[in-house]
Amino acid sequence: MATRRKFLADCGMFAGSAGFSYLALNRLSWSGPEKKPGKKSPMSLSFRPYELHLRHVFTLASGSRSVTPAMLTEIRFEDTVGYGEASMPPYLGESVESVTGFLKKVDLSHFDSPFFVEEIVAYIDSLAPGNHAAKASVDIALHDLVGKLMNQPWYRIWGLDPRKTPNTSFTIGIDTAEVVKEKVREAAPFRILKVKLGQKNDREMIETVRSQTDKPLCVDVNQGWTDKKMALEMIHWLKEQGVVFVEQPMPKESVDDIAWLTANSPLPVIADEAIQTAADFSKIQGAYSGINVKLMKCGGMHAAYTMISMARAMNMKVMIGCMTETSCAVSAAAQLSPLADWADLDGNLLINNDLFDGIKIMDGKIMLNELPGIGITKK
């Protein structure tokens, strides 16, 4: 294990180096018209709120919901439009009002072209602290736009092999035994299931799932366990039940307890709520086996690429995840999936009012298409 000083130095070094492909893109890929003095940039941002309707009531350790507020964004450049999205589950602390307020501050007329991705992302990040889902909605639309202008999907721009996409898990929320069984039956095409835990019926949840399938499982406790010895006992039992990793078993503030748990756990322990952006790596040093990267937590595709690069440099496992989202944000995250050990990209499958067509799941595996940008079309 690196010393804390070396760890922090590595964080800075790899955060700086991870954006090289973007810098090269900025300087080498654009040969269109430059902004003339006094002439407004041809880029424009528009946005509108949208409500995501869940197929089932979604219950986890912290509560239940049947809808998730979202914001849909568009960046238009001449005749090309890039699409983006902000999804706002309660724990992120963002709302339609806060995202609207942030997006009203965005003025893309500062930039000569959409290809200055590094500069545009840095500008967006500088407008206000936090607001990561709002920032992601601009970042995703920008990446979709640039990919379309290059006529290439982003996995290809990054030089990633689409054959290396992982299987995605399908999420089974906390519910009654009969509903859990129904959800497991709905998940028949998937090769791995993600089971939400963190309440008093954890063993019952697993036993109910196991009564229907012997597929590998992963579990997400959403900070629901508070006693490290009980947590370790549960993890040993979960391993016997065919669970492959445990996500955020204890409150993110319990860093020492989680570090002890990880050191003694027979399964990898993955950070979710404990890490949102690259700046949080220093807070979780030595406490987890890996991280769950989500565009809505970190601010978009650019930030996610950086976080994955840093995690790999630190020999950490990587999971690419999502919130409840349309195929817009899920397909954007999927562009990064060849870099991940695991994926949980089912957010679009949990809603019944998706506005986009994007990535497909075939026999449980993420299938990236050839469409440019983030790989979506509007329905």
Concise summary:
The protein has 379 residues and is an alpha/beta fold.
How would you describe this structure to a colleague?
This protein is an alpha/beta fold and 379 residues long. It has two domains: 19-151, 2-Layer Sandwich (Enolase-like, domain 1); 156-378, Enolase-like C-terminal domain (TIM Barrel), CATH 3.20.20.120. Helices cover 35% and strands 22% of the residues. It has helices at residues 4-17, 20-28, 96-103, 117-126, 132-150, 154-157, 177-186, 202-210, 228-240, 255-264, 295-298, 301-313, 327-334; strands at 43-60, 63-77, 80-87, 169-172, 192-196, 217-220, 243-247, 269-271, 290-294, 317-321, 342-344, 356-357, 360-362, 365-367, 377-378. An eight-stranded parallel β-sheet has the order 4-5-6-7-8-9-10-11. Strands 1-2-3 form a three-stranded antiparallel β-sheet. A two-stranded antiparallel sheet has the order 12-15. Helix 10 (255-264) links the parallel strand 7 and strand 8 (269-271). It is globular, with a radius of gyration of 20 Å. Mean pLDDT is 89; it is low at 1-21 and 26-38.
